[in-house]
Each structure stands twice: as structure tokens, then as C-alpha cells.
Write the C-alpha cells for this entry.
Amino acid sequence: MKKLSERHRRILIYRHHQAMKNRGKRNLFRSPTTVLFGDAVSVTLTTKSNREDAFGYRLTPPEVFCFEKNLSETIKFLDNFRKVILSRQRLRPRKRDRNKHHDKRWIGSFTDIAAINEITPSAALVLAAEYDRIKRKNLGVKGIIDGDKWSSSVSGMLVDIGFFEYLNTELPDTHMSDPPPLNTKMLQIITGNQSITEKIDKLNRGLEQLRNSVIKQPLRHAVFNGLTEAMDNCANHAYPRGHQFVYPVIPGCWWMSGSVTNSQDLEVIFFDQGATIPVTLPNSTNFEKIVQWFQHKFSIPLHKAHDGQRIQAAMAIGRSSDDTSGRGNGLATMKNLVDQAAEQSSLQILSRRGKYVYTKGRNERVESLDFSIGGTLIRWRLYL
Amino acid sequence: MSRIYKIAEEFSSTPGGRFQRNGPWSGEQFREEVLSELVNEAIKTRDKIVIVLDGTSGYGSSFLEEAFGGLVRKGNFDKNQLNEHLEIQANDPLYEIYRKSANRYIRDAH
């Protein structure tokens, strides 16, 4: 293998960073930071101690809040959500809105969760992680807005994952009295900022309780190993020291959960809000191998590759110099989990604006997305 | 008689990731606090240390690489010493894959 000279290596890293910067600028213009709201609307705000009328500007999520059926709309919403809610910009009511709602409390912008009719576990996890960040970074937890209008299946899933803790309150009793049977049962979110593998055991036990039956040992081990690597990757690569994050982050933080469908199939989800795989790829100690892999596989230099291709490279080569394909490669271990389950089981990784899918018995697929998911989401869909 | 060390009982039933700074029960911690000492002891007494992998919830590849491959990579031992004084054992077939991986990490380390 030809060794890169130090100068050439620096040039390639420089080009990569320039390409990343320009891409960021293009997207900033495509979706302006100031989302244009319609008129302010009046809502009911429920907090732990209080219930009151309020008004604010509505940020409307898609009806189908899902990374499978409605990926582009869902990540577009999350992109806007971060720009509006996490930017620390103080939003003031327009004069006509203030006059119209003068007797109500002003709450700024808010996410209208009542607009969601269908939500999937992975999308619920990413949304909850955003609310957790708001809470931990003191960016203004508002409470439940129009909770009475929330779809019962949506609020059911949000109760399951412990979403209301991030809102500093509980779901109104009206929804708790007669919860509907859900097609998908989800575990409460487990979070941490280190590789704490006892928590994976907890997740495995939780999944077994949801299924009312034990998970076979090889699969149980594969879940343990896959999530151990996800945690370790997060700790080693996701929040690099000195990286300039656009939004405030909780260093090292990850969120994970699992769900069981009516047909007893499993889903295991892991999310971090870090710098993402495509961005941190050049920090890899395997950089030379990655550059050559790109040249060989796509006949393009690394800086021209889209994010999906970058994730594919990370999967194939690994990011540490101790990694070699299929050996010691934490990301490759994640694929092994899929191989332990039945046909059609899949691993999906969304990282920044890239999508990578590995389905058992099929080829890998990669895709470039219009908006960033705001971190790295790893989702295993396991048919038993 | 060779010393037998059961990871699940004497170290952790949930082995962690690669580095100690990333969390408890890491491969680095196992190598530095347990494995190196056991191998040194085995070399001194011209005996063998048997590491039993069974009974844990699994092993991430980074744990195994750092713990076993790290013995050679960090320059603490050479491969011949490890061949002679370290045995990695898996009694349950489920753990056989980890045994093979650990041995391969030692073999490929440089």
C-alpha cells in the first residue's frame, strides 16, 4: 500500500474540511435559520403544578413521524426544530399576536406534538433525546402543550419511553385512564455518557419482559456485543475534543431503547448527538486505508463522497488502526447482530446526511439525505 | 497446577469497551490490572494461566482486542511467551468464537 506523505495527508484533510464547510453553508441557505411561522396560536400549557392558557408560534412535525415511511419530512422537521429551539434566539411575539392574546402567557415557539398521528420507536427516541438536551442544557422546558389533543398511540409510546420526564411533568390523567393497546411496546430510554455495559443487560432483560419469553443466547450476546461497540464508538469518536458543535451537546451522551412488535420482532436503537461518522472519519488512524478504499470502490476522492458512502467506508475499514475488516472493527460487529437474526433483519445507520442499510442476505445500500439527523442513529430490526 | 481465572466471576459478567477512560470493566483495565499480572506470575513460576471466558453477557471485539492483542501490542510480552504461559478457554460452544477471536488478536498483534 502506498504511504501518504504528511503533506498530502494534510491536503486531503483540508479539502475534506472545506467540503464539509461549504456543504454546511449551502444547507443553511436552503433552510433559513429563522423558520417563518404563521400567526401565533393559543394552547393549553400543562406543567407539574399548573394548567394555563398560553400562546406561541407553532412548529408542526409531520403527521407520520417516522424514519422509515417519511424520512425526509421527519429529518427536515428535526433540522428546523434544532434551529428554532436550540439556537438560543429569543423569539418575541408580533404586535398583532400580542394584542390578540394579551391575557395569555407567551411561550415562544413550541412543537405541536398533537399534529403527530403515527410515531415509530426510533423517531420517538431521537425526539426524546432532543427534549433531554433542552432540559439538561436549560434551554427552556415548557411542559405539555395541548396534551389533551395528542393521539393516544403517540402519547402511549411517549409514556413508555419516559418522555414526560424531559418535560418535567406527567401526561394528563385523561390519557392515562384508558391507554389503548399499542402495536409496538417500547422500553423506557436508557441513557449514559460512558460504555456502561450493565445497562445493556438491563435492556436485554427489559426486552425479554416485553416479549414474555427469553431471547436465545446467541442473539442476546449479539445485542450485548453490538451495543457495547456502539457505546465504545460513541465514547471514542462521537464527541471529539475541540470539535465546534453547532448546537450545545452533552459530551459523551447516548440514548438507547428497544421495542417489541405484536409479532414479537425486536428493534434495538442507539442514538448520539455527536459530530457524526462522516465528519469524524478523517480523524481516523486508518485514514490512509480509507482514502485508498474510496479510490478503489467509488473512484472518487474522499472529499467528494456523500455521507452515505462515508458511513460505508467506516463500516468496511473501521476507524481505529487496530481495526481491520471484520476483525476488531466495532462497526463491523454491529453487522454481526443482524447475521444472528432471521432473514430480512437489518441494520440502519443514519449519520448526519447519510443513510446506510445492511439487510441480511442482501447488499448494502447507501443514500445521501437533504438534512442532518443531528447525530448518529443506529437501528437494528431483528426478526426472530 | 495451572491457575484458572474466570472472567465472569472474578472480573465482570458484563465486560466493557476498549479503554478505561470510557467506562468500567474495559479491556484495558482487564489487561493492566489482571491479565498482565497473571501472565507475569505464570512466567515466574514457569506455569500457565488459564483464562475462562464463559459466563459473561458477551464480549465486544474492542474489549478482546485491547485485553489480549494489547499484551503484545504494548510490548509487555512476546507471542512465544503467551503461547507458553497463557491459555484461553471456552467450555460453552457459545464462547468459542470469543476464544478464537482473542487468540487471533494475539497472533495478529504487532
